[in-house]
Structure formats: structure tokens, C-alpha cells
Design goal:
Elements: H1 3-58, E1 68-72, E2 75-80, H2 86-99, E3 106-112, E4 117-124, E5 146-151, H3 155-223, H4 226-230, H5 232-261, E6 270-273, H6 275-289, E7 297-301, E8 307-310, H7 311-327, E9 335-342, E10 345-352, H8 359-362, H9 386-397, E11 400-406, E12 410-418
Parallel strand pairs: 7-9
Antiparallel strand pairs: 1-2, 2-5, 3-4, 3-5, 6-8, 9-10, 10-12, 11-12
Helix pairs in contact: 1-2, 1-3, 3-5, 5-9, 6-7, 7-9
The structure holds adenosine-5'-triphosphate (ATP) and magnesium ion (MG).
The site of adenosine-5'-triphosphate has 21 residues, from helix 7 and helix 9.
């Protein structure tokens, strides 16, 4: 996905997430408010009933106005027209709160106009134990003569007990959003890193190619000089310069080719190819390069048809696969190439009897820079880029790439190329 496309998806996604968070916030606040309202309604209903119970007992009239006043968040005053008996009040409070299912601690006190104090207080807990009588703890209210006050110290806790479900659901949602955002952040930073890596490889290789070409040309000029050709020691040094610059040049070219498959404008130049003859040429080349006997790379082919492929990349991937088959063979090198047709596909199969790959490493084969850990031996040199390149080229052609291997027995690489 290109940078622009990512942002085109990312911005609406972030806006949607912000919307969800805001809606969740409103929902939570509403849930809290309605919990609070429900609590207050219950208190009003219960306290009205208590006032009615007391007035029924004594047959006194209830005040026409200001029966119940909420003095603070959790403190209520019930105004009556008569003296209040503490025992009856506690009995009615308990009964009415229980009836309306308002099961929470409460504290009550009765105003005594003679002493101008809140008296006969009691603290009632859910555990049905009552605390010591608490006097003078509840605030007074000077406008009335007969009243009692009720305080709910655990009002917030009570509202929480109905609020926990919305809170839990919102927390799960917010946690999921957090993980999604974290994954997005990781994804973006990985994209950035891989883009930086590609541009670094590109710049480095370009920077190296110019001085390398100059070195090569200079060494070639030197090798043609009479003074050098007369002196065998100097000729040998110049030859080393030539060989090494050639080697370095081919390595830089490999990295460049691999980097080119990773750019957005990687285009295949497909043409008609005869896989058998192309592979046969590369086989000869490898036999020469590694000083092998012909039978060390055997080749069998059946009836096949031409394929459409990018010739340059096709040759490179065969070179990479054969290079591995030879490099990772210890002792005897015995590589076998099979080329045959299945219904609508051409199959290229390269098997070796080399060191093989452990099953746990197989899934990482083809990842950029992955090399099987060979301890401190480092017998075989490499970048861990060859098969990554092969995988990329196969993917671009829509070919199937498979690798099977058994440790210490050998490896088989298979490429399936659909005809047409
Ligand atoms: P280079 O970039 O020079 O090719 P490389 O050979 O290490 O370096 P790849 O060709 O991508 O990188 O191979 C990745 C790893 O897979 C190798 O380091 C090696 O451990 C393992 N491997 C690949 N082919 C074979 C094989 N035929 N037999 C055993 N191991 C192999
Ligand atoms: Mg390799």
C-alpha cells in the first residue's frame, strides 16, 4: 500500500476511533447520571413513605411543602410536624429501604430543638451490626423544628455497583482500541524502517558502483602496461586487483538487483523463454565457476513448452538456487535438476544432498537477511538475500515457490510456472 493510500485509510479510521471514544464517554456519563437519578428517586420514595408511616402512627399532618430536602450529595432532611421517636424511625427507615431494595449503609439523626443538636443518631450497616450511636455528626438545618436527617456514606459505591457493567464494556473496548492503535503504530514504523533500509541499500550500491568501475578500468589499463607485464610479481598484484574488483562488482550488482525487486516501480520485462536451454547454460557456468565435474550437477528434462518470463531475473534466480545447492553441500557435491511438465505447469526442481535446513528454520527461509544460524563456524559466506530475491521474483511472476528440506539429508527447491 502506498503512503497516500495508507493515510486515506488511516485518517477515517482514526476519526472513527475518536468518534467511538467520544460516544463511549457520553454513554458512560449517562449511565452514571441515570444510576445517580435512580438512587435519588429511591431515597425520595422511601423517605416519603417513612414520613407517612410516622404521621400515620401519630395521626399528625405532614407539612404541605418541603417534606424532603437534599442538603448535599448524600444527605437528606425529612421535615415533620411532630416529635420523632428514634426507635420507630429506625424501624421504618430499615423497612422502607429494604422494600425499595436500597441496600446500603446509612446514618440517621433526629434534631432536638431543646438542645439545638442532632441526637439519637445511629449508623446502620449492611452487616446488620449497628455502630455506636453517633451524636452531633449530622449537620443541622435551622429553618425547621422537627426533622430527621439521613446520610448515605456509600452512595458512590452504590452507584458503582450498577455502573460496573458499562464501565467494564467500555474498558474492554478502550483496551482493544489501544491494542489496534499500538499495532498500527508498529506497522507504520516498520514501513518507515523498510523504506529507509531500501533507500540506504540503493544509495550505498550506487555510491559504490562508480568508484568500483574507476578501479576496474585503472587496473585494466595497468595490466596492459609493458612495465607491469614484464614483472610477474606486479602482474600478479594487478590480477588480484582485477579479480577482487570483479567480485565486489558482482556482489554490488546482486544487492542492486534484489533492491530493485522491492521498489514500487518493479516491472517485469516478460519474453518467451526456453527454460531448459537457459538452465543448461547456467549449469555450465556454475560447473566452471565452482570447478565441478559435469556429473556433479545432473540435469533431466521432459517434454516442455516455452514460458513467459523476465529473462534477466529468471537467470538470476536459477543462479541463486544453484549457488545455494553447491554452497551448502559439504563433502560431495551432488546436485540434481529436474525439468518437467504437469497438466498446465512447468516444474523446475533442484535437489541437493547438502547440510539441509532444520524444520524450525524452514518457515523463515526467504525472509530478508535470514540465514540459518551456524554457530561460530561461518563456513559459508552470504547476505541472506538470495532466496528473498527468488521469492520476490516468483511472487511478481505469480509462480509457486516451495522449499523442502531435511537436516543433514538435503534440500529440494521447486518452482511451479503456469503455462500461458
Ligand atoms: P546470499 O545472499 O549470498 O544468497 P545466503 O545464501 O546465506 O546469502 P539465501 O540464499 O537467502 O542466503 O539463503 C538463506 C539461508 O537458507 C542460507 O543462509 C542457508 O542457511 C539456508 N539455505 C538456503 N539454501 C540452502 C540449501 N540448498 N541447503 C541448506 N541450506 C540452505
Ligand atoms: Mg544464497
Amino acid at each position: 500500500m502506498s503512503g497516500k493510500k495508507i493515510y486515506a485509510v488511516l485518517i477515517p479510521a482514526l476519526l472513527a476511533i475518536a468518534g467511538i471514544v467520544i460516544v463511549q464517554g457520553f454513554w458512560l456519563k449517562n449511565a452514571w447520571d441515570s444510576g445517580k437519578r435512580a438512587f435519588e428517586e429511591k431515597v425520595h420514595i422511601a423517605l416519603t413513605k417513612v414520613a407517612e408511616d410516622i404521621s400515620n402512627l401519630t395521626r399528625a399532618q405532614l407539612p404541605a411543602t418541603d417534606l424532603i430536602s437534599q442538603m448535599s450529595g448524600n444527605y437528606y432532611i425529612v421535615h415533620l410536624n411532630q416529635t420523632i421517636d428514634a426507635n420507630s424511625l429506625e424501624f421504618y427507615l430499615k423497612r422502607e429501604f429494604e422494600d425499595i431494595n436500597l441496600i446500603t449503609d446509612f446514618e440517621y439523626g433526629i434534631y432536638d430543638c431543646y438542645t439545638d443538636q442532632m441526637v439519637y443518631g445511629n449508623y446502620i450497616t449492611k452487616e446488620s451490626e449497628t455502630r455506636e450511636k453517633v451524636e452531633n455528626q449530622l449537620p443541622k438545618y435551622n429553618d425547621f423544628i422537627y426533622y430527621f436527617g439521613v446520610r448515605f456514606p456509600n452512595k458512590t459505591k452504590f452507584i458503582y455497583s450498577v455502573w460496573w457493567l458499562p464501565l467494564l464494556l467500555s474498558s474492554i473496548l478502550l483496551l482493544s482500541i489501544f491494542f489496534i492503535l499500538y499495532a498500527l503504530k508498529e506497522l507504520i514504523s516498520q514501513r518507515k524502517l523498510s523504506r529507509m533500509q531500501k533507500s540506504f541499500i540503493n544509495n550505498m550500491t550506487h555510491e559504490m558502483k562508480t568508484p568500483l568501475s574507476s578501479l576496474k578500468i585503472s587496473a585494466e589499463v595497468l595490466s596492459k602496461s609493458h612495465i607491469i607485464s614484464k614483472d610477474p610479481r606486479l602482474s600478479q598484484y594487478v590480477q588480484i586487483m582485477l579479480d577482487q574488483s570483479e567480485h565486489l562488482n558482482s556482489q554490488v550488482n546482486r544487492v542492486l538487483e534484489i533492491a530493485s525487486t522491492q521498489t514500487a516501480n518493479f516491472r517485469l520485462k516478460k519474453e518467451k523463454l526456453n527454460a531448459i536451454s537457459e538452465i543448461a547454460i547456467i549449469r555450465e557456468l556454475m560447473i566452471k565457476r565452482y570447478n565441478l565435474r559435469k556429473e556433479q550437477i545432473s540435469m533431466n528434462s521432459g517434454e516442455t513448452k516455452d514460458i513467459y518470463a523476465d529473462s534477466f531475473h529468471f537467470k538470476n534466480i536459477i543462479k541463486n538456487i544453484l549457488d545455494n545447492a553447491i554452497k551448502y553441500s559439504i563433502g560431495t557435491i551432488a546436485v540434481d535438476i529436474q525439468i518437467f511438465s504437469l497438466a498446465h505447469t512447468l516444474v523446475l526442481q533442484f535437489s541437493d544432498k547438502g547440510i539441509g535446513i532444520d524444520q524450525k528454520d524452514l518457515e523463515n527461509i526467504g525472509k530478508q537477511f535470514f540465514r540459518v544460524d551456524q554457530g561460530d563456524l561461518h563456513r559459508v559466506k552470504g547476505f541472506g538475500l538470495g532466496l528473498h530475491y527468488v521469492v520476490n521474483v516468483c511472487k511478481a511472476h505469480k509462480w509457486e515457490f516451495r522449499i523442502n528440506s531435511i537436516k543433514d539429508i538435503g534440500t529440494t527447491v521447486k518452482i511451479e510456472i503456469p503455462y500461458g
